[in-house]
Specification:
two-stranded antiparallel sheet, 201 residues, mainly alpha, 7 helices, two-stranded antiparallel ribbon
């Protein structure tokens, strides 16, 4: 795995230098091949369950929200807590703030939960809108890895609730080691989810 990762990093560095691919596309390739496979197997070992990785969750293009085929929850557009650009307003730079609902990553899965296989595990995070995909994948990486682009993503906690960030006891330690192992735990407590998932890295 390390050998493949090393070879892939060399290839990705080459693509960056040539300018043949956009930075967003390179990130998505890197995410899917390295972090994505690592996350899938970690989740498999821990029997991690989240609606965000369920076969019954799909994106409804008409209402522009993710919908549960089993109707266990109301439709919600947020897979992870983030703010996405609204592509329907082409002339203006407009952003859509996610509803004050629990994002699919933090919802309690129902008895009908059926995990996506390894090839389609990130199906709900990927779309033709590369920018939206990258935003969601970066937030997912930050929540589950504790870092994103080598930075501690404190903005994720702050965007959910300012007090989670301002009252955080782990900021100094996170800065020292370059990642935070408490993001998923803190957000789970805020959304009142019972879980014991540890970070992937």
């Amino acid at each position: 795995m390390e050998y493949i990762g090393s070879k892939l990093n060399i290839f990705i560095r080459f693509l960056k230098k040539t300018g043949l691919l956009s930075v967003d596309l390179i990130y998505r390739i890197n995410f899917m091949s390295l972090f994505g496979s690592k996350l899938y197997f970690r989740h498999k070992i821990m029997s991690f369950r989240s609606c965000a990785f369920c076969k019954h969750l799909y994106y409804d293009k008409i209402i522009k929200k993710y919908v549960c085929r089993n109707s266990e929850y109301e439709a919600c557009s947020s897979l992870v807590p983030c703010i996405l650009p609204d592509s329907s307003f082409i002339s203006n730079q407009t952003y859509v703030e996610e509803e004050a609902q629990i994002p699919w990553l933090f919802k309690e899965p129902c008895l009908n939960f059926d995990v996506l296989n390894s090839k389609s595990y990130f199906r709900n995070f990927l779309s033709y809108n590369l920018n939206d995909s990258v935003i969601k994948l970066e937030v997912l990486e930050g929540i589950l890895m504790g870092s994103c682009s080598s930075d501690v993503p404190c903005y994720i906690c702050a965007s959910v609730n300012k007090e989670i960030f301002t009252k955080c006891k782990y900021i100094q330690k996170a800065d020292e080691i370059g990642k935070c192992d408490m993001i998923y735990c803190n957000l789970s407590q805020f959304f009142d989810v019972n879980t014991t998932l540890s970070n992937v890295s």
